[in-house]
TrEMBL record:
Transmembrane segments: none annotated. GO terms for cellular component: chromosome; nucleus. Coiled coil: none annotated. This is Pachytene checkpoint protein 2 homolog. It comes from Solanum commersonii.
Length: 148
């Protein structure tokens, strides 16, 4: 009877019990999400909050669609003649929020919108831009609590 190798993928470096780690045949450290991954995780959370009506959608008719990371970087490198468009501004704010989240785990990133929504003064009528501002503040607070 052959046994398959045990594999341990971990992003809790230094926290897992050494006896537990030693039992794995293959060990791989999985670091925190990249900036692009942070952006996409937060973008998917924000899109869901907009889709479900938890955040107010300020576009008439359809649901506001935030650009993916690649599209945002492309638009930021172009000279945008119509700066009044809302989604490039929100995309830039979302990128700033993702930058504030660098080093956080994927689980912490998924929890962040929930924490930000709980911190809103009026959670029932919040514009996406205001929500992103609160989410950046929440991310900074989470970072400071982790470093303590």
């Amino acid at each position: 009877m052959s046994s398959s190798p045990s594999i341990l993928l971990c992003n809790l470096h230094g926290i897992a019990d050494i006896a537990f780690v030693d039992r794995a045949d293959i060990k791989a450290y999985v670091g925190p999400p990249t900036l692009q991954a942070c952006y996409e995780i937060l973008r998917s959370c924000l899109q869901e909050l907009l889709r479900t009506g938890i955040l107010s959608n300020s576009q008439d008719g359809g649901c506001l669609v935030l650009p993916n990371y690649a599209s945002l970087k492309e638009k930021m490198s172009e000279v945008v003649s119509t700066e009044s468009q809302m989604f490039p501004h929100l995309g830039k704010q979302l990128l700033e929020a993702a930058e504030a989240c660098e080093g956080m785990s994927g689980r912490s990133l998924r929890k962040l919108p929930f924490l930000a929504h709980a911190a809103l003064a009026n959670p029932y009528s919040c514009e996406p831009g205001n929500f992103l501002h609160v989410m950046m503040q929440t991310a900074k607070r989470e970072h400071s609590e982790l470093s303590e």
